Structures are given as C-alpha cells and as structure tokens.
Amino acid sequence: MAAVALTTRQKAAVIVRLLLEENGDLRLSALDRDTQALLAQEMAGMELIDRVTRDAVVTEFCDLLDAVGLVFPGNLDGTLDILGAYLSDDTNDRLRRLAALAGKGDPWERIAALPIDKIVALAQQESTDVVALLLAKLPVSKASETFTALGAARGRQVALAMSMAGNVSETTLRRVGTVLLQAADALPRSALDSPVVDRVGAILNFTTAEIRDNVLDGLDADDLDFAGGVRKAIFTFAHIPGRIDPRDVPKVVRAVETTVLIRALVAPGEADAAAGEFLLANLPQRVAESLRDDMRDQGKLRPREIEEGMTAVVAAIRDLQASGEIQFVRPDEDAEAA
C-alpha cells in the first residue's frame, strides 16, 4: 500500500498529533497566533491517516532533523535570548523595544522583565487607567510591590480602575504596552554599574568605625531614607553573627591569614567580641582551641591593628559572597531596623 500524498501543513499536523500523544505538555502556545490558528484549521479538516502514510511522514521528518546543522530562532526576541548576555544593556533594550514597536514581540513580556524600580517609576507617572492595566498584566509579586509604592489614596483609585480592565480589547492592550515600553526606554539610566546606596555602603565597610559612624550620623540628618538604605548595605565585623550561616564559618576562616584573623578575634567591644566568639564557636573544636591559645599568646595590639584585622575578615567574606561560595543570611526585621 502506497503512502497518501499530504501537503506540508498536513504533515506538520500529523507530527504534532503524534507528539501530543507522546507528550501532553507540548507548548503550542509558543507558536505565533497565526501558526496556531493554521495548525488547528488543518487538523480540523483531517480524519484518518493510515500507518504507511504516518510512518512515511515520520521518516521524512526524522531525515529533515538529521540534516539540520544549526537552528536560528527566526525572530528578534529569540535571537536576543541567545545574545542578550553578550550585548550591552542599552543595545538589548533598544532592540527589544524595536521588536515590540514592529509588532514582532509582546511588549508586556518586556515590561514584566523590567526592574521593580523602573516599573514603580512608570506607575507614578502614568494615568490611573494605564496603571490599572499595568498591574493587571504584571506578575503578582511585582504588581504587589508596585501597588504598595503608590500609597493608599492612589492605590484606591487604581483598584477601582482595575475593575473595568477586563473589558479592554487585545489591540488596545498591546498599544498600551507599547506606549509603556517607550516610556520605560525614556527613563534615565544610571551610568554606574551598581546602585549608589550599595556603593556608599561598600565604601563605608572598609573605613574605621569612627568615620563610618560620623558619616551615617550626617546622612541621618540630611537624608533619612538614603541613610537607611546605606545602613542595610553595610556589612561590618559586628554583623557576622546575623548574616553568616554557621556552616560557612570554616570557609571564612580559611580565607584569612591566621595572624590577621587573631587580630580580629581579640577585638574589644560587646558586638565585635560576640562576632569573634561566633566564629570560634562554629569551628571544629581542635581548630577553635588552637586559635584561643594564639589569642592568649597575642601581645597587646594597637586599635589600628585590630581594625585592620576586622577589615580583612570582612573583605574575605565579601569576596566569598561575590564569588557565590557563601550567601548572606537575610537579616530579620529587627536587624534591619537596628
């Protein structure tokens, strides 16, 4: 029995039908809408396919796969998913915006991927109706953060407007998304590679306690919100018990020269002494006892030498955290408020 001649679309329908039988999780939604519609229409017009024809279609499909050397996405969004990590942020954003404006990408996917601070900035400058659509399309976590940032009065207005968002057509929704994407592209982008708050915190990490306290007192008087952000970004020797997992203590100790570590462990002051004791308590007993012996044998140190020891430990922890070898424990609400 000879195989029945089928069109290319009919062959595609046969392959999809077979894949659906084998794997019910086949994501046809990843296809564009026109392709999905054509596939459904083609399958709706087909009935029985004999085994010979089925096997011939499968063989042809497998032969085509074997002949493939490389596969390119065929669209800009897919291409940028591959190249995104190798392009500058500006180039990546501009190309994705151009794709959305040309109708070749979903603007809402790009909006949902924006940092939360940009989304909040958009929400604060757009009309209530537009913000209602924005919150309706965002992932719940980002929608919640954005809604909270709006404040009670504006939040009530947006919540009321969201009750009417269900009547918006797909064309209007896409147009609003495109406009928001253009607005997001127009927002100023910092030329710095890290937030200013984090940068100030990192600088203060390696200053003396006296300088750090004086700077923070001044920031408290001039800009309380900025000062609070800087305090959260700071990590000092005294923060070790609340931010370092006890299981990571051996890694920290191995990263610091023993003579330098001893200088930090003999630090006076309640908070610094507690940090030193935390490190010792989470080391193997033999190692901890050896360090305690070295501490007892240590002569009198100048405050500057102790400060240098604590700074070296903090620097080692920062390096381990940056390389991914350890993770900071998230501070609890009491610690953040302190």
UniProtKB/TrEMBL annotation:
Cellular compartment(s): Bacterial flagellum basal body; Cell membrane
Record domain Flagellar motor switch protein FliG C-terminal: where: 218-327
Keyword Membrane annotated: yes
Keyword Cell membrane in record: yes
SUPFAM superfamilies given in the database record: FliG (SSF48029)
Location (main, coarse): other
All residue ranges annotated as the Flagellar motor switch protein FliG N-terminal domain in the record: 6-104
Membrane topology: Peripheral membrane protein
Domain Flagellar motor switch protein FliG middle: 118-188
Keywords: Bacterial flagellum, Cell membrane, Cell projection, Chemotaxis, Cilium, Flagellar rotation, Flagellum, Membrane
Record-stated family: Belongs to the FliG family.
Function: FliG is one of three proteins (FliG, FliN, FliM) that forms the rotor-mounted switch complex (C ring), located at the base of the basal body. This complex interacts with the CheY and CheZ chemotaxis proteins, in addition to contacting components of the motor that determine the direction of flagellar rotation.
The protein, known as: Flagellar motor switch protein FliG
Species name: Paracoccus albicereus
